[in-house]
Amino acid sequence: MLEMLKQTGRPEMVVGAYFADARSECVLGWYHSHPGFGCWMSGKVLEGPVHDPCCAGVDINTQQSFEALNQRAVAVVIDPVQSVKGKVVIDCFRL
Prior knowledge:
three-stranded mixed sheet; alpha+beta
């Protein structure tokens, strides 16, 4: 799986694969933040084998790429601005 992540050429996947490979761990997904905007996935789910990144949106396209490699992959989104007084605003997604 790590070699497959590296072959995608997507920077976030290559970095994730590098760290996972160095630690002998498995990549389970990815995380990112939407400071002040809440937790959601940008874009829309596109059907079919070929996805146009400009139509799908960055978050959905990235998650589709992760799920193509591992059907159990997850996307974690956190909003550090809305996370106040001990309450963390965080959510996890699969398509």
